[in-house]
Amino acid sequence: MKKVIAGLLSVAMIAAMAGCNKQPAQTTAATTKAGESKPAETTAAPAETTTSETTIKESYGEGPVHINLWSFTTEVPGMAKKYISLNPDFGKKYTIDVTVIATTNQTYQPALDAALKNGEVDMYAAEAAFILKYTQGDAAEFAAAYKDLGIDVDKAVKDAEIAPYTVDIGTRKSDNNLVALGYQATGGAMIYRASIAKEVFGSDDAATVEKEVGGGSGKYDTFWKAAEKLKAKGYPIISGDGDLWHMVENSSSSGWIVDGKLNIAPERQAFFDYSKMLFDKGWYNETTDWQPSWFADMKGVSQEGKDNKPAFCFFGPAWLINYTLAPNCGGEKAGEGTYGDWRVCKAPAGFFWGGTWVLASKSAAQNADKKAGVAELINWITLDASDKGLQYMWANGTFNGEGGTKDCVASGKVMAAADGKLDFLGGQNMFPAFIAANANATGKNMTQYDEAINGLFREQVNQYAHGQKSIDDAIKTFKSNVADKLGVES
User: Fold this and answer.
1) Is the pLDDT of residue 44 over 50?
2) Which residue blocks in 176-312 are alpha helix, DSSP H?
3) Are 172 and 135 in contact (CB under 8 A)?
4) 105 lies in a domain?
5) Scanning 43, 72, 208, 255, which has its CA 20 to 30 A from the CA of 31?
């Protein structure tokens, strides 16, 4: 079964989920199939010529010890470059040789796998869509345990208050060792229109709205009551059922594959009913995520030829605010489009969406010259909760100087001390909601085949919701398609 699935996995990962800050290597941003790119905070000029449209080779530092860093965007390499600029002595001891291969042509994973087998990689990055392959799946054997780099993992994770779901995902199950951590946290909150909340619920206060939608309850009954109230005032609660799917999928009690067989968790099974109810009751605008009508909902206007009403909320991490809602809200300051008319609160269920993890190879951990340098970089990126760490700058928007983009990070300690106020959110500090979101998210329901199976599932849900087939036929077709395309029987 593994070989069949692995062969199809690289195809299924074309549209890897965002929050992983995906972009072609030479540019600061790109539009993927899903449209989920996030601009890198820096894009360094290549030290060597670009070898192809989606590959960059460059080097930072001038030291005699070479560390080979592989990534699918320029983001993590940009962090390594930043570290050298802040710590010149590090750059005198080490040279970071960077290979960036974008995921757009499905070439990153095959190239990385070959390089790992040949011992040519010391540090590497993997995004949410395929991270489990490298921490718990087919390529987990190449990853070094953080403790084998000399990092006091348990103490560092506790001291920095690292989001538990990132630890879940980065822990290799075969030996229970932590082999990967992220720097960005992608726990999901509810991002809602303040003006609509005032009109319908009488207040735009996050605590009030949270109560109205059942934020943090782990249930949807209160959310559906809120949908009825909104509909009575002419507003759909969400734009499309995809806005609900990420929360349902990532808060499920079990994953798609259990003991080698297809498994439909009860929460995911319930999504059939949720989607049909949204359609039948007119509680959404029937948009598809990452399509023009979905972006139109962020502006609060109808796409040409449609009669969409302004949607009340979206669900997602901080990157959805910074890199999707804000650029598509129709303005750049309060009073323009929906800019400034958004707030955040707890979502009904805890979930995460996207992210990038950083790993070290066993070969690096076994190389006395490289080990200390790799450990220093990884610690600074993923665990350092001081005001000198990467995450402090990332959270406060000071990575490139004052006034940069503020983003959520893996360290709850950093976010609790950081300034998360955004003009886009009417001056609200977004971090309390996202600290709670990160704490409530889980990574224990993931498999390395999720992206492929999700597509097959949502296709059948859509057909059922629109009355094109019965739920029994939809489930039967779903199971058959998974068996045919991935070799997984139910």
Assistant:
1) no
2) 194-201, 206-213, 221-232, 242-250, 266-281, 292-299
3) yes
4) yes
5) 255
State how far the Cα of 65 lies from the Cα of 312, in Å rounded to an integer.
Answer: 54
Two structure tokens written together for 17 = 């989920």
As given in the structure block, the two tokens for residue 271 are 């999504």
Total Cβ atoms within 10 A of residue 73:
31
CB neighbours of residue 391 within 10 Å: 30
- Residue 4 scores a pLDDT above 60: no
- Which of 34-38, 194-198, 255-259, 263-267 has the lowest average pLDDT? 34-38
Count structural domains, the chain: 2
Helix locations, 300-406, DSSP H:
318-320, 362-365, 368-382, 390-396
CATH number, domain with residue 283: 3.40.190.10
* 343 contacts 335 by C-beta, under 8 angstroms: no
Residues in contact with 154: Cβ distance below 8 Å, sequence separation at least 6, in sequence order: none
| Residues 277 and 307 placed together within one structural domain of the fold | yes
Residues 6 or more apart whose CB falls under 8 angstroms from that of 335 comprise none
Evaluate whether residue 422 is within a structural domain.
no
Alpha-carbon Rg for the chain in angstroms? 22
CA nearest neighbour of 313 among 158, 415, 196, 394: 196
381 and 255 part of one domain:
no
**Domain that residue 279 falls in:** 189-352+445-486
Q: For the chain, report the end-to-end CA distance as a whole number of angstroms.
A: 13
Mean pLDDT of 130-150: 97
Question: Are 184 and 410 within 8 A, CB to CB?
Answer: yes
Which single residue is written with the structure tokens 């290799």? 172
Residues 6+ apart with CB under 8 A from 325: 191, 298, 314, 342, 424
Query: Six-digit token pair at 219?
Result: 């249930």
For residue 349, give the nearest of 445, 259, 217, 193 by alpha carbon: 217
Q: What's the rounded mean pLDDT across residues 48-77? A: 84
- Does residue 380 share a domain with residue 272? no
| Same domain (yes/no): 413, 467 | no
Alpha-carbon distances of 405 from 81, 308, 360, rounded to whole Å:
19, 31, 28
Q: Would you give the distance in Å from CA 85 to the centre of its chain?
A: 28
| Beta strand 189-193 pairing with 313-316 | antiparallel
Q: Which two tokens stand for residue 197?
A: 């909340």
pLDDT tens digit sequence for 390-430: 999 999 999 988 778 999 999 999 999 999 999 999 999 99
- The pTM is what? 0.87
Residue 430 lies in a domain: no
Instruction: Compute the distance between CA of residue 489 and CA of residue 17 in angstroms, rounded to an integer.
Output: 26
In this structure, are residues 422 and 233 in contact, taking their beta carbons and an 8 Å threshold? no
Burial class of residue 325, CB neighbours in 10 A (0-12, 13-18, 19+)? buried
